[in-house]
Amino acid sequence: MRIRIVDAFTDRPFAGNPAAVVVLEEDHFPAEERMRLLAAEINLSETAFAHRLPAGGPAGWALRWFTPAAEVNLCGHATLATAHVLLTTAADSGTLSFATRGGALTAAGAADGSITLDFPTAPLTPVEPPAGTAEALGATVLAAHDTGDVIGDLLVELADEKAVRSLTPDPRALAALPYRGIIATALAEDPSAGYDYVSRFFGPAVGIAEDPVTGSAHTALAPLWSARLGRPDLTGLQASARTGLVGTGLRGDRVLLTGTAVTVMLAELAEGV
Fold it and tell me: Where along the chain do the CATH 3.10.310.10 domains lie?
């Protein structure tokens, strides 16, 4: 079994968000327990498993994603990484289509090397943040939004970019909240810097203390900030230590997520493992 490590939402190695990609030779997934063990062994925020589907169907590939602790319904950076692998190894070409737990997804490569994902827009429902949210984050929460069942995160607005960048949350307290993860966001301090809004993502409940760049979170960030700024096409900066840029294009009930990726490692499981 061949495993590639790909840095997604970046144009240089050792930045963006690393994902493991396993393109299976078989026409089916391994046993779920085996995929969970592999994801835990690799210990990145997500490991993607993909296999080809029969020709003529609604999708060309089946795709699943696992964190070190759980399978997830939707993952942007590992989908971008998978598309990058399929396109750069000539396993496929043109617009790729995936059947996933989060619904039908597509990925289209461009001549400049960027890849655009077509994802469902997360529904935003204003909510009162659960008790202890502000204390867990260590910051004042101005507003909170439930993002629906597919991604299952809580999106919280903070006062400004500095508040987002300076967060040092309590992982145990965050893990106790009834959400997959917490997305913290604010308007960019200086839009001329090349991005319109900032965010960070914390998911200790699914084994991710902080995710470097979270594509799925931008399916919720895009409708929030496009409505506020009055523009469908924006750029988000995820202000983790590795950082990454995500282009977002709101298209009704779909969001286009655009980024680049770099393969940094190729490995194989040892014989007999």
Answer: 2-119+258-268, 125-252
- The pTM of this model reads 0.93
Which tens digit of pLDDT belongs to each residue from 256-271? 999 999 999 999 999 8
CATH says 2-119+258-268 is which class?
alpha beta
Cross-strand pairs, 39: none
Residues designated catalytic: 46
Closest to 213 measured CA to CA, from 41, 42, 80: 80
CATH of the domain spanning 125-252: 3.10.310.10
- d(CA 188, CA 193) in angstroms, rounded, equals 9
